């Protein structure tokens, strides 16, 4: 096109140039600096009992060794929360599946009572991870899906955790209020994931997710996946409950002389055996529910020189004044930049 003797680009050319510019921008990851860090904290005594009467002044918080000013502190029993249920559907779940299904259902109903402050979603994983129910306030949707699940196949735990952090509907206010929690129900093994353990730990830390786990490993047995659950939970501030790993611990001779039937105080196939299995699973579910709803939540703006590389991990430490013997659990740290948007 010519105007006053000068060639002017046509509309199509301008539109094309704009598209190229937008594509170039889209290829650049958007990094958002972390202005405020959220730290959910659980405090228990040496017997595992929650300490629920602590005040803001009882805590000291350190970022890379430097003490920080806690700007926000809360210990409400009804803290808003988004909780993801990641259910192992591999072959290993078949033996006690009905009991775990019932326990998971109770946990869903307990943590998602219908209040809009509480949201949840359901992901199952076998050969592949699948978002079965996206984020919502209605626990009945997940309960209905749970009734129809049948285990079988491999296990893609890492892909399930990655999906929980990146591929679901979010709610307004995440990750500060409500906060983010994942509960894994499975034995921790992974045979099918495209992601690695280190990758999903990093994505969970970047997304301020706390991971808890209900291990399905039975007493006297160990699997390679136990380490996966331990690392996922410890590095994000959660814990592993192992309900089937202690049901025989007080029975003399169970492992040392298994041929002596008299040592089987809880005989396999008996009512006592079934009741002990169910009771132990439900106690672990109650422990997880209590911990998730009883945490202290702190926020602070880091008073440290900001690093320019978002891959550099900053470590956090929280201590309780004058109570050296308590157990304090919180996430290991954070990345100074939020995940790409």
Choose one word for the global shape: globular
Structural class: alpha/beta
By DSSP (H or I, 4+ residues per run), the number of helices equals 7
Please give the share of residues in helix. 25-40%
> CATH class of the domain at 81-260, please?
Alpha Beta
> C-alpha Rg, in Å?
24 Å
Strand order of the largest sheet: 9-8-7-10-11-12
* Mean pLDDT, all residues: 79
- Strand content of the residues, in percent? 15-25%
CATH superfamily of the domain at 81-260: von Willebrand factor, type A domain
Distance between the termini: 40 Å
Tell me the layout of helices and strands:
Blueprint lengths: L1 E2 L2 E2 L3 H16 L10 E8 L14 E5 L2 E3 L3 E3 L6 E8 L8 H15 L6 E8 L3 E8 L2 H10 L8 H10 L12 E8 L10 H10 L2 E7 L10 H9 L5 E2 L29 H23 L2 E5 L13 E7 L6 E4 L2 E2 L7
Helix pairs in contact: 2-3, 2-7, 4-5
């Amino acid at each position: 096109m010519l105007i006053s003797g000068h060639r002017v680009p046509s509309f199509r050319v301008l539109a094309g140039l704009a598209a190229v510019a937008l594509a170039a921008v889209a290829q650049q990851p958007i990094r958002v600096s972390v202005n405020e860090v959220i730290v959910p904290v659980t405090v228990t005594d040496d017997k595992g009992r929650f300490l629920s009467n602590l005040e803001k002044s009882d805590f000291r918080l350190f970022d890379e060794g430097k003490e920080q000013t806690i700007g926000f502190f809360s210990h409400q029993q009804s803290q808003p929360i988004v909780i993801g249920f990641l259910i192992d559907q591999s072959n290993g779940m078949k033996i006690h599946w009905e009991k775990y299904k019932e326990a998971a259902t109770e946990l869903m109903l307990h943590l998602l009572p219908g209040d809009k402050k509480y949201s949840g979603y359901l992901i199952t994983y076998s050969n592949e991870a699948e978002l079965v129910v996206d984020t919502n306030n209605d626990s009945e949707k997940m309960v209905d899906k749970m009734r129809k699940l049948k285990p079988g196949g491999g296990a893609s735990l890492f892909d399930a955790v990655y999906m929980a952090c990146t591929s679901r509907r979010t709610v307004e206010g995440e990750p500060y209020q409500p906060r983010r929690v994942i509960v894994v129900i499975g034995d921790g093994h992974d045979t099918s994931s495209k992601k690695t353990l280190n990758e999903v730990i990093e994505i969970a830390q970047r997304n301020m997710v706390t991971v808890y786990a209900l291990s399905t490993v039975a007493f006297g047995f160990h699997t390679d996946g136990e380490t996966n659950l331990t690392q996922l939970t410890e590095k994000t501030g959660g814990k592993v409950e192992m309900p089937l790993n202690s049901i025989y611990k007080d029975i003399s001779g169970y492992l040392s002389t298994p041929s002596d039937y008299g040592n089987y105080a809880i005989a396999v196939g008996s009512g006592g055996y079934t009741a002990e299995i169910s009771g132990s699973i439900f106690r672990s579910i109650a422990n997880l529910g209590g911990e998730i709803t009883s945490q202290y939540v702190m926020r602070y703006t880091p008073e440290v020189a900001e690093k320019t590389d978002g891959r550099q991990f900053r470590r956090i430490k929280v201590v309780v004044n004058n109570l050296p013997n308590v157990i304090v659990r919180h996430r290991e740290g954070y990345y100074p930049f939020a995940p790409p948007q």
